[in-house]
Amino acid sequence: LLSHFSSIGFWGLVNNAGISTFGETGWLPMETYEKFADVNLLGSIRTTLAFLPLLRKYKGRIVFMSSIIAYFTLGNGIYSMTKAAIEKFCDALRLEMKKFGVQVCIIQPGNYARSTKIQPPLSAEEIWSELSEEEKAVYNKEYVQERANFFNSILSEGSTNGNEVVDAMVDALTSPAPKARYMVAKLKEKALVFVCALFPTVVMDSVLSYALSK
């Protein structure tokens, strides 16, 4: 593969693979955490390392799919965790690649669940059936139902205009001066990121706790 690209040039790499799920920390088994880290984080790193020699040679570009969920979480901490990690990987890579003329860009979409189908709706019964006995002793079905309804309502509000994210990816690959970060999100979502980045953690925790209690 690398020898084939060496003869025709190699311009850009887009790390887009990702999986998502919903659940509080103790609801998910260790195997799920390992799977998510492997796909969402290590998968992008593996691909990047494989193509790095060609990207340096041809002064190419690397685009990573992150999410505004890298800044905060509303019931899908496992997905948020992997996106926060990929952001830090990109921050290091972007600085290191400057001397080679390789540009690194991060796409940070808001809620596009209805466009990507990355996260199907979850039923409370499905979640409950997979809980350990320890977790069932702590939580009840009514609580799980409330959380499932809340998360599914967020999914239903997702934008169907997935072309907005694709346009950002194209700009990152073709613009003479691409941005380090492209935040493609609704004003409400950008406001949450703003609060998370600039206000004390206790403020963001209060905002998210209020949202979770609705």
Characterize the overall form.
globular
Total helical segments? 10
Largest sheet: 4 strands, parallel
CATH architecture: 3-Layer(aba) Sandwich
CATH topology: Rossmann fold
How many domains, in number, for the residues? Answer: 1
Assigned CATH superfamily: NAD(P)-binding Rossmann-like Domain
- N to C succession of SSEs: HEHEHEHHHHHEHH
Give a description of the structure:
- Pfam families: adh_short.
- By secondary structure, the chain is of the alpha/beta class.
- Helix content is 58%, strand content 9%.
- The chain is built from ten helices and four strands, in the order αβαβαβαααααβαα.
- A four-stranded parallel beta sheet has the order 1-2-3-4, with helices on both faces.
- It starts with a helix and ends with a helix.
Brief descriptors of the model:
214 residues, Rossmann fold, four-stranded parallel β-sheet, 10 helices, globular
Please give the structural blueprint:
Elements: H1 2-8, E1 12-15, H2 30-57, E2 61-65, H3 77-97, E3 103-109, H4 113-116, H5 124-129, H6 133-138, H7 141-156, H8 163-174, E4 181-184, H9 187-198, H10 201-213
Parallel strand pairs: 1-2, 2-3, 3-4
Helix pairs in contact: 2-3
Provide a short characterization of the protein structure.
This protein has 10 helices and 4 strands; from the N terminus they run H-E-H-E-H-E-H-H-H-H-H-E-H-H.
